[in-house]
Amino acid sequence: MALKSVQKELLKLLADGQFHSGRKLSGQLGLSRTAIWNHTNELKRLGLGLHSVTGRGYRLNPPLELLESDLIHSHLELAVAKQLSSLEIYDSIDSTNGQLSKAVHLGASSGAVCLAESQTNGRGRLGRTWVSPFGRNIYLSSLWQYEAGPAILSGLSLAVGVAAIRALNQEGFSDVGLKWPNDIFSNGKKLGGILIEIMGDALGPCTVIVGVGLNVDLPGQSAEEIDQPWTDLTKMMGSGVVSRNRIAARLLNELFPILENFDQTGLTEYHEEWSQMDCMAEKRATLRIGKELLIGTALGIDKSGLLMFEDELGQRKSYASGEVSLRVVDDNQDA
Ligand code: BTN
Question: What's the CATH code, domain 69-276?
């Protein structure tokens, strides 16, 4: 749903989570109380906890920190701020990855970033949809260009996982890890995911779009569509409000240095760190390759980022991410 500018203003006034009387809001926005009532009804459709109580007014519970360019900038490292070639924030977009794919043809360059409050067609791995309700999570994409061809980007999604965990650790979330190939996990539950899309010629140049989706405060209603155990940062924190702007900045602070040098470092630089973050290592797991299902043990990644897996007969093989899906045994949901 596209927000009207007056609805955005209304949302900003309500964002603090306090009660606001209809009379005061109508004065602040220069609208009738009926118009305020109509707009709040439309805002309710975004799935935000917007309530009205007779005699007290309207209240957003939980409060909301809208994405704001200035706030994101205020948390960026200086070097990263310099590399940021554009920062676009949408209320609603089909997909932040999709938006940057289009922007390439309009001259977008390395360091272009797109964030959205909601996605109408958020893309997940293996053609899945990424649940993307308004104002609750992080949907962030970043674009980088390389002289060389796509082959140099092998293992990049794993390195991006390292960036995401570093950012979450800095934010105080220690109980987080990675599940090959590109899931962000906490205590056996999916917290986020990474989707890398590459365009270009085999011999170069190429452009990569790195998409990161992170559940910050996923409403239960939206989560009904998710077909596996999930969690979000708000649940993990227990109480308080997670700053999406600060987390977005931290993600960029970690992501840009990796993207800047990945054509030189490849995965080698991040291999050990990834392995320390691997939450599937030595776990009994199933591996689905197309229609085939293997049961065995996940053994981490090899130097090029392939998953090493030992089946029940003790045979060890390495697998590329392509159409492969790894999940913990006992977790009946597809990962
Ligand atoms: C996965 O399936 O785990 C990957 C999910 C990636 C979702 C993010 S949200 C921001 C970016 N835009 C998209 O459409 N997808 C990625």
Answer: 3.30.930.10
